[in-house]
């Protein structure tokens, strides 16, 4: 979302506030967006899957069944077993936890960093703005995946490290969006009134400006979550992500690197591939719905 | 009457930046050497057309904008030098009411939160007392305590302006800069708000600087009126004196443009030709000389000082 669009949506939300509650209106428009509602339902199911994994999973995801490895789906193992005899269904359920933690964790970190940097740049302006935005430009010009690979291999591949690395590298876009919104909102009279009333700068930024810049941040965070999940899967697939035996949809896909598995044992890679697609699609649908709901130009 | 506020040689120049490196190419002289005093308990009206610097003057006084030069002395203390904590403490005494009631209230906060926050920040009342004071004030400005938990979008323009006035009042200020407070409202609502402001002035011994482009509104509410043109104060006089006996050619032209309720009355209309010159490059001498019907040679070279012609009547014109 570019700055012009953000400013438009801010203007729009202030105008709309006159007629109905802004959040109520967004909710109504989101609810009319069928794909978004579907996406939300699917996403909530995945969340449930992750939360209830210990109760849903038929067995311990790391338990090796010595008698049946690489076995096709059967009554004992509904989705079959993998090459060392672990239950695919159980691993699939537990892997949802990994993907969601990466999605939520990385986005939480980078939304915080980006919001802080963008707000400081936009509010104080001048050389502070110039400096922070040039740093943002530099971060944006990194070859993303390569830097992540290097950092993860230096820090050692683990779930925490992936979350930290994705979080630390993902903020520039948020910073730009927030800066644009803050520049716009800073000109509103209610911010001037806050200055005239002698409020401190942090109070003005955090309780008067940022709550009004919430919508574009939320939209960006949603898409960011889908991206983080894809990136984690790619890293795990390459062996630089979540390490076995911990299950992740990405490292479950690793087995598909073998041609035999790819062609004749689809139960070992199809479910995890499917889950990645479903998770990312559902989140992106939610994001689309949110974006349309806050975008003044997409009246339905 | 005691002097509450004294503005001396106030200037606000906005730099014009251009080029790749943002080099300063010149200045927009929004306020150029304005001086006046405001007495305790009075309403000083400031009129002028768009872009004459009346809002900039108001905002520079309460330090929403940093003045380029000049002094603003409030109750014997120079505001222009204040910093940090001292400035924040002083802000309590100087408040502002904005023009646009739709942009001046935070859409995410309830009326109660908007009005309680200043009390909390300045430590003016405890938690329970705060709530009571806000409710009392809502009542005073013509709303009810049921509005306490409502959001701004649930109100009409006039009601919002009442909330804006309540916010300016909550810290019990001495001076309120009213920056076109009724210009965005319907005519019927305008008079309600003006009367409210008059009542509040009496009740709380307020002093107003009332900025407007509407001559009738200013006439209704003000005790004295200042006329601004291109960043300068050209005439300043008690209300009746100014409206009955305007001396500056600009004031005369301005007043002749006010519609009169009696259509049979034949009046002379002074039509100004041309446009207001750019404040980035104001004319030399008197800023008004390019459009003045009484322009003399001296007007093109020497800037006239604001001087007193009769008791309390100040004019910046070489004619007097």
Q: Averaging pLDDT over every residue of chain A, what do you get?
A: 84
Alpha plus pi helix count of chain B: 10
> Distance N terminus to C terminus of chain B?
27 Å
Low-confidence stretches of chain B: none
Q: Biggest interface pair, residues each?
A: A-B, 25 and 31 residues
Order of helices and strands of chain B: EEEHEEHEHHHEHEHEEHHHEE
What's the pLDDT, averaged over the residues of chain B? 89
Specify the helix fraction band of chain B. Answer: 25-40%
Describe the structure.
The complex is a heterodimer of chains A (300) and B (320). With 300 residues, chain A is mainly alpha-helical. Chain A contains 15 helices and no strands. Chain A has helices at 3-16, 22-32, 34-51, 53-56, 88-124, 126-140, 144-155, 159-169, 172-186, 189-196, 201-209, 214-237, 249-253, 259-264, 270-294. Chain B has helices spanning 54-61, 84-91, 111-121, 127-140, 157-169, 187-204, 215-221, 239-244, 249-256, 297-301; strands spanning 3-18, 23-39, 43-47, 69-74, 77-78, 94-97, 175-179, 207-212, 224-229, 232-238, 307-310, 313-315. In chain B, the strands form two sheets. Chain B has an eight-stranded mixed beta sheet with strand order 6-7-8-3-9-10-12-11, sandwiched between helices. A four-stranded antiparallel beta sheet of chain B has the order 2-1-4-5. The radius of gyration of chain B is 21 Å and the shape is globular.
């Amino acid at each position: 979302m570019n700055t012009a669009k953000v400013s438009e949506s801010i203007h729009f939300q202030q105008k709309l506030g006159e007629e109905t509650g802004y959040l109520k209106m967004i909710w109504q428009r989101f609810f009319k967006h069928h794909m978004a509602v579907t996406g939300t339902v699917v996403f909530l199911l995945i969340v449930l899957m992750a939360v209830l994994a210990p109760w849903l999973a038929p067995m311990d995801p790391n338990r090796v069944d010595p008698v049946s490895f690489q076995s096709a789906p059967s009554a004992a193992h509904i989705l079959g077993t993998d090459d060392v005899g672990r239950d695919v269904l159980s691993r699939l359920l537990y892997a949802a936890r990994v993907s969601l933690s990466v999605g939520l964790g990385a986005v939480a970190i980078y939304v915080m960093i980006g919001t802080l940097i963008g707000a400081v740049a936009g509010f104080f302006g001048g050389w502070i703005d110039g400096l922070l935005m040039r740093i943002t430009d530099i971060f944006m010009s990194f070859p993303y995946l390569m830097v992540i690979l290097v950092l993860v291999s230096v820090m050692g591949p683990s779930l925490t490290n992936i979350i930290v690395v994705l979080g630390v590298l993902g903020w520039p876009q948020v910073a730009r969006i927030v800066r644009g919104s803050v520049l716009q909102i800073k000109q509103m009279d209610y911010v001037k009134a806050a200055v005239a009333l002698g409020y401190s700068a942090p109070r003005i930024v955090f309780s008067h400006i940022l709550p009004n810049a919430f919508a574009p941040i939320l939209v960006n965070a949603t898409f960011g979550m889908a991206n983080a999940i894809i990136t984690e899967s790619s890293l795990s697939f390459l062996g630089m992500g979540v390490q076995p035996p911990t299950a992740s949809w990405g490292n479950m896909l690793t087995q598909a690197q073998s041609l035999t598995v790819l062609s004749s044992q689809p139960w070992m890679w199809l479910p995890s591939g499917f889950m990645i697609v479903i998770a990312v699609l559902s989140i992106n649908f939610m994001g689309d719905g949110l974006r349309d709901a806050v975008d003044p130009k997409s009246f339905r | 009457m005691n002097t509450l506020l004294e503005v001396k040689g106030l200037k606000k120049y906005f730099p014009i930046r251009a080029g790749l490196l943002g080099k300063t190419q010149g200045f927009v002289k929004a306020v150029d050497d304005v001086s006046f005093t405001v007495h305790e308990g009075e309403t000083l009206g400031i009129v002028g057309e768009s872009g004459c610097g009346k809002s900039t003057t108001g905002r520079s006084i309460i330090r929403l904008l940093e003045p380029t030069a000049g002094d603003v002395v409030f109750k014997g203390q120079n505001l222009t030098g204040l910093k940090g904590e001292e400035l924040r403490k002083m802000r309590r005494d100087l408040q502002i009411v904005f023009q646009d009631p739709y942009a001046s209230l935070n859409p995410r906060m309830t009326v109660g939160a908007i009005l309680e926050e200043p009390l909390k920040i300045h430590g003016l009342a405890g938690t329970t007392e705060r709530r009571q004071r806000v409710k009392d004030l809502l009542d005073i400005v013509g709303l009810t305590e049921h509005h306490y938990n409502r959001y701004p979008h649930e109100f009409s323009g006039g009601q919002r302006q009442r909330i804006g006035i309540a916010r300016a009042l909550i810290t019990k200020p001495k001076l309120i800069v009213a920056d076109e407070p009724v210009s965005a409202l319907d005519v019927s609502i305008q008079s309600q708000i003006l009367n409210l402001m008059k009542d509040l002035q009496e009740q709380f011994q307020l002093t107003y600087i009332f900025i407007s482009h509407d001559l009738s509104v200013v006439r209704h509410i003000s005790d004295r009126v200042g006329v601004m043109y291109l960043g300068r104060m050209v005439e300043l006089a008690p209300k009746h004196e100014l409206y009955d006996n305007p001396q500056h050619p600009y004031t005369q032209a301005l007043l002749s443009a006010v519609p009169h309720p009696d259509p049979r009355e034949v009046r002379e209309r002074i039509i100004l030709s041309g446009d207001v010159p750019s404040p980035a490059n104001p004319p030399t001498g008197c800023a008004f000389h390019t459009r003045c019907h009484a322009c003399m040679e001296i007007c093109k070279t020497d800037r006239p000082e604001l001087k007193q012609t009769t008791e309390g009547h100040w004019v910046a014109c070489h004619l007097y």
